[in-house]
Amino acid sequence: MIASATLVETVSGATTKACRFCGAGLQRTFVDLGMSPLCETYPSPADLNHGEVYYPLHVYVCEKCFLVQLEQYESAENIFSDYLYFSSYSDSWLKHCESYCDKMTKRFGLGRQSFVVEVASNDGYLLQYFGQRNVPVLGIEPAANVAKVAVEKGVPTLVQFFGTQLAKQLAAEGRDADLVLGNNVLAQVPDLNDFVEGLKILLKPQGVLTLEFPHLLRLIEHNEFDTIYHEHFSYFSLLTTVRILEAHGLKVFDVEELSTHGGSLRVYGCRAEDRTHQVEPAVRELIAEEERAGLGLAAGYETFALQVKQTKWELVNFLLTAVREGKSVAGYGAPGKSATLLHYCGIGKDLIEYTVDRSPYKQGRFLPGSHIPIYHPDRIRETKPDYVVILPWNLKDEIMEQLQFIREWGGRFVVPIPKVTID
Ligand SMILES: [Zn+2]
User: Fold this and answer.
1) Which end of the chain is more exposed for a tag (fewer CB within 10 A), N or C?
2) Residue 112 CA, ligand 1 centroid: distance in Å
3) What is the pLDDT of residue 7?
């Protein structure tokens, strides 16, 4: 099911795409990554005889509110109803979640009398830590197969998409929350205004909202173009986030920079009229940094596209040289972001023979489009490749530690982003 783009009429009478937040016409390209299949759809051997649908990965920046965004090409139901991503598989991510839980419990005095709601709660990976501290929780997760795992773990979970409708229903049942959190979900929301309005409705008058999402400033600085994929409709600076929350009667009172996903923000919000929280200097300071980087002007978004092209040339050049020299190259990981990287760079099985992944759901399947096979991590020890390309480069330290044994046969690691490095 292909969702049609929202069209607006311009002054000249021509139709064009409209900004997901402010409705202004979208004309300015941020980067055009060509055509790519949906990144979280891993074909099984039986699927290989069928065609795959490719969608454009053309990213625009709104010249009015500076929201960087993709058009929505595929309905959210189709993308997320049988999602293969299980958060619980990354050790460093779990540590991150537990320390978040500790911090929130202390800072906002959460306990048995409180109520925490997570939007897009996945397999309950985060809420389980609140549960261990006896804080009542509710998860909201649209992917039924993932939500089922959460419920089995004892994390109450509603299988639904979040928006104003569900928020009103929960609030009417007295299930409004002291803490509402959304990790890596804001980017995936097709109807941004309805979602943010829903967050406000779900908050108790003095409730706190935290949102984590990849920071656009770092995406640009660190050249993280492979974090752009169809499932991520929007890319946020703090500047634009503050504007979006304000439009829905919410204020940002604090912000933290995190190292997750190549540089993320954790934004703290509350109702605009809530005087409990002073706006911390960190908010003003980070907005000033974004302005210095040019994110408050359309021209500030111009250089990214060239930087992306240069990375492609370097990576392809490295792999071609290695293959010509008779070296073997394998991948590590099958994250969503690898689809963008491999497609945009035109890399197939001829350059990376196979990849491995710890998730049993991905083993025996193939990367979308390139059809690079995905095996169990033991395959690396068995085949002793000369190079291992780390596709989830954001976890490179953890992966290099786990794979130190490739040094035994002189194996080396290749990290493609921010620039190609061989270690
Ligand atoms: Zn806009």
Assistant:
1) N
2) 41
3) 44
